[in-house]
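Lab notebook, design round three. We kept the backbone fixed and only want residue identities now. Task for the bench partner: fill in a sequence for the structure below.
Input structure tokens:
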């Protein structure tokens, strides 16, 4: 229970930081364009605490999801509506008194701040370097360890369990985690793999298949992790770091998937292990299968990235941010290829929960790994927030940009009534989207 609360708090803090960057972009652009800011808030609803400096009330509000930057001019807008004026009364420093170009710049500055924030994160990571734990891209055919009898593209392509994937479409692959982004957005497209099989280099062509549950294209492979113990959290297991499991209840264990498959079949009761420790074969009588599975962690490979100079790091950071933005765009495309939206689109509840869980999981690997996971995740969320806010939906930044661009082209102010109707429609659209996302979150979380 305490762990879940802690994860939720981590999620709220992380998302609040991303929102603060976004609203800070609007705020700075407004100040540069001499537009007065009435409120800069993290969260919505009732004011919890904050301070006022100059014209602006800086606050933290009760509902810790999102935030807003309110400019002076709301009263003038309301007056124009009430008195059915053709134009909004102009007053120095008010939002609608500024030029259409200024309002466009203010609207685009929030998403731009999020994107620049992501570039800074990726640049910093590349500049200082980082320790990386990974699993080499050696594969296991999913169909060999699945009970549902389903087949996957890997089964028809010529891939075999134990193959080491060297490249995907001529892109070198170092870790198993690198396979997903290279395959996930290519449903029904031919992909060329180069695999190493017992020292031989073999080209294989494969066509990934869209998985409606995950929303990504898959080929049907799992990571081959050697059954070498990294840590055992309970001494009662009898296992130590560096032990190699070679059999469980007289069943050969070539990799971690085989090990967990045996534990699942046993379900309860003792597990008889044969291990190699310091070159000697040892027999162990471990506790129940359930306890043993919960207490073990297998070894991953580890390496330290080479720190780049600041110029190289900026280039690397910019490239990484663009790759993530491209992945976001391609992910949206997947929604139109038969994916179930509720499985791949997170609402505020699941976003906070998942963010906190991922951050907490990162810190379990140490402070350095936790910070790396945290800031990489914040960068990805920041890019997604930038993209979503640029969608041409009224009340979102993209919708505002469309409205003010239209005004710029007309060379005259848009009537208050038109602005009101435009924003009203946008508010209804956003409310419906948020309600649908929350319902989807509740359904998904209740099914876990």
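Proposed sequence:
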């Amino acid at each position: 229970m305490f762990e879940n609360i802690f994860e939720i708090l981590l999620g709220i803090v992380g998302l609040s930081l991303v929102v603060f960057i976004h609203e800070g972009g609007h705020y700075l652009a407004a100040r540069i364009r001499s537009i007065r800011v009435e409120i800069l808030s993290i969260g919505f609803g009732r004011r919890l605490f904050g301070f006022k400096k100059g014209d602006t009330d800086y606050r933290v509000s009760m509902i810790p999801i999102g935030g807003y930057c309110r400019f002076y001019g709301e009263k003038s807008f309301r007056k124009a509506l009430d008195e059915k004026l053709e134009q909004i009364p102009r007053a120095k420093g008010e939002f609608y008194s500024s030029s259409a170009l200024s309002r466009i710049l203010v609207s685009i500055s929030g998403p731009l701040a999020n994107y620049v924030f992501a570039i800074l994160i990726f640049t910093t990571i590349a500049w200082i370097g980082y320790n990386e734990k990974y699993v080499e891209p050696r594969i296991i055919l999913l169909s060999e360890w699945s009970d549902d009898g389903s087949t996957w593209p890997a089964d028809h392509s010529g891939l075999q369990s134990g193959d080491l994937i060297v490249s995907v479409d001529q892109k070198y692959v170092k870790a198993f985690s690198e396979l997903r982004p290279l395959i996930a957005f290519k449903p029904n497209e031919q992909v060329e793999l180069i695999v190493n099989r017992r020292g031989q280099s073999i080209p294989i062509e494969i066509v990934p298949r869209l998985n409606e549950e995950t929303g990504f294209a898959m080929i049907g492979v799992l990571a081959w992790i050697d059954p070498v113990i990294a840590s055992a959290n309970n001494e009662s297991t009898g296992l130590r770091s560096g032990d190699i499991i070679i059999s469980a209840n007289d069943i050969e264990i070539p990799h971690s998937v085989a090990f967990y498959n045996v534990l699942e079949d046993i379900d309860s009761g003792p597990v008889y292990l044969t291990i190699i420790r310091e070159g000697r074969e040892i027999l162990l009588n471990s506790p129940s299968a359930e306890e043993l599975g919960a207490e073990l962690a297998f070894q991953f490979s580890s390496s330290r990235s080479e720190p780049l100079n600041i110029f190289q790091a900026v280039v690397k950071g910019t490239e990484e941010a663009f790759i993530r933005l491209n992945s976001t765009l391609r992910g949206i495309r997947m929604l139109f290829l038969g994916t179930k939206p509720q499985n791949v689109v997170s609402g505020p509840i699941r976003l906070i929960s998942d963010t906190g869980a991922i951050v907490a999981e990162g810190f379990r690997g140490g402070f350095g790994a936790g910070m790396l996971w945290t800031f990489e995740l914040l960068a990805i969320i920041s890019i997604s927030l930038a993209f979503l806010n640029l969608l041409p939906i009224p009340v979102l930044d993209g919708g505002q940009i469309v409205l003010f661009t239209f005004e710029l082209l007309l060379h005259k102010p848009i009537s208050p009534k038109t602005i009101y109707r435009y924003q009203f429609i946008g508010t209804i659209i956003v409310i419906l989207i948020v309600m649908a996302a929350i319902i989807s979150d509740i359904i998904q979380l209740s099914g876990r």
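Keep this in mind before ordering anything: The longest helix spans residues 2-32.
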